[in-house]
Amino acid sequence: MIVKKYTGSTAYEAMNRLKRELGSDAIVLNTRTVRQKGFLGLFKKPIVEITAACESKSLLLSKSHDDDRINKVNSELITLKSMIEEISSTIGDKESEVSPKLKRYHGQLIKNGVDYSIATSILKKLDEQINFDNKDDETISNIVKYTISEYIGQVKPINIENQRQKVIFFIGPTGVGKTTTLAKIAAKLTMERKYKIGLITSDTYRIGAVDQLKTYSDILKLPLEIIYNSNDFEKTLVNFKEKDFIFVDTVGKNHRKVTKEDELYKMINSTKNKEIYLVLSGTTNLSVLRSIVEHYDFIKNYKIIFTKIDEAKELGNILNVKYLTKNPISYITTGQNVPDDIEILNKDKVVSCLIGEDPYERSS
Ligand SMILES: Nc1nc2c(ncn2[C@@H]2O[C@H](COP(=O)(O)OP(=O)(O)OP(=O)(O)O)[C@@H](O)[C@H]2O)c(=O)[nH]1
Ligand SMILES: [Mg+2]
Question: Class assignment of domain 166-344?
Answer without folding.
Answer: alpha beta
